[in-house]
Every structure is written in C-alpha cells, then in structure tokens.
From TrEMBL:
Keywords: Membrane, Transmembrane, Transmembrane helix
Transmembrane segments: 16-40
Source organism per UniProt: Saccharopolyspora karakumensis
Claim: Transmembrane helix is one of the keywords in the record: yes
Protein name: DUF3515 domain-containing protein
InterPro entries hit by this protein: DUF3515
One Pfam family recorded for the sequence: DUF3515
Length: 195
C-alpha cells in the first residue's frame, strides 16, 4: 500500500489565513496606488509650475516706474535706438519683449519662455548706492556700479552724461553687460563719475 503523508496542521483556521493573505495583498496594492498617485500629483505640479513660469516670462512685461528725468534726452535716444532686436544670453538669441502700458520712457526688455527678462533703462536718477567709495567695475572702458537685489543684479553706467542701467537675473553671466558696454562706450562720451 502507498505511504500516507501527513500534513501538519498550523492551527490557524483556513478562513483566517485567507483573510490575512487578502489583507496583505490589499495593503500592497494600496501602498502602490498611493505611490502612483503621489508621483502623478508631483508630476502634474511640476507641469503647472513650468506653465506658470513660462506665462510669467512671456507677454508684456510690467516695468515698474522709476524716476528717469533724462529719459527723453538726445543721449538716451542715441542709446535706445542702437539697442539690438535680439540679445545674446548664454549662447541663445533672446527677442525683445513688449512692455505693458503705460511703459516707462527709455526702457527696453528682452525675454522669452526660456529666459527671465533683461531690461535696459536710460536717463534714471543717480543711485543712492553711488558714493565716492563705491566699488566700480570697468567693462570695455565703461565704469559700472553693481547693485544686487534678491536674485537680480542691476549694473549702472556711472561715467556718462546719463545713467544707463542693465537689470538681469544674477546667473546670466556678463555677456549682456559686455555688449551694452560697447554700445554705451560708442554712443556716449566718457565723463568723471563725480563732476
């Protein structure tokens, strides 16, 4: 006769064992579902953030009004008319960006969906930060005063008949400043910083 194999009884009733296994499977499916939902939510948030960032970088730029008593001067007209239609930023050609109305006089901006705005203003008042002990930087023969505010930098040409300002994100490099220095140096005569 054949051998009879006896199975040990674990002592756990079969229905309880089935429920425990089913609960384990449900728990695993639930954790996986939460993970997928979390990934989807994070992915969607990243997409919405990118869309909001692109919207902020396009359309008319609202340029805050600042005192610019020399904005209508012939010197500012010479500088503003010579500014390029596109600005080289990190190897990319960035187009001019329209300004929201009412737009400040003698103000031009560049920017697109991939680049934060870069602005040039002419004829502004002397900055309070400009003192006889200010650290100035010479770029292509033009003396510039750097003013950092938040994540942006403003550079002011301080040795010309009118003050010219370049404002840009601090991380864009010096390319736009070098280009503007050549333009300002060619259009406006040098004069003492403190006449």
């Amino acid at each position: 006769m054949g051998d009879v194999v006896e199975h040990e009884d674990s002592g756990v009733p079969k229905p309880v064992l089935i429920i425990a296994i089913a609960l384990g499977v449900l728990l695993a499916v639930g954790v996986a579902g939460v993970g997928v939902y979390g990934w989807y939510g994070e992915h969607r948030l990243r997409q919405e953030t990118a869309a909001a960032e692109a919207a902020r970088r396009t359309g008319p730029l609202a340029a805050a009004p600042i005192p610019a008593p020399e904005a209508q001067s012939p010197e500012c007209a010479a500088v503003m008319s010579a500014l390029p239609a596109q600005l080289s930023v990190g190897g990319a050609q960035v187009p001019r960006r329209p300004l929201a109305q009412p737009a400040p006089a003698a103000t031009v901006a560049w920017g697109d969906a991939e680049h934060d705005p870069v602005t040039v203003r002419c004829g502004i008042d002397a900055p309070a930060e400009l003192t006889p002990t200010s650290q100035l930087m010479d770029v292509s023969g033009v003396s510039w005063l750097e003013i950092n505010q938040g994540g942006d930098s403003s550079w002011l040409a301080v040795d010309r008949p009118v003050y010219v300002a370049l404002s840009a994100p601090a991380d864009i490099g010096t390319g736009p400043l070098q280009d503007l220095s050549k333009l300002v140096g060619g259009k406006l005569p040098k004069q003492p910083v403190f006449p």
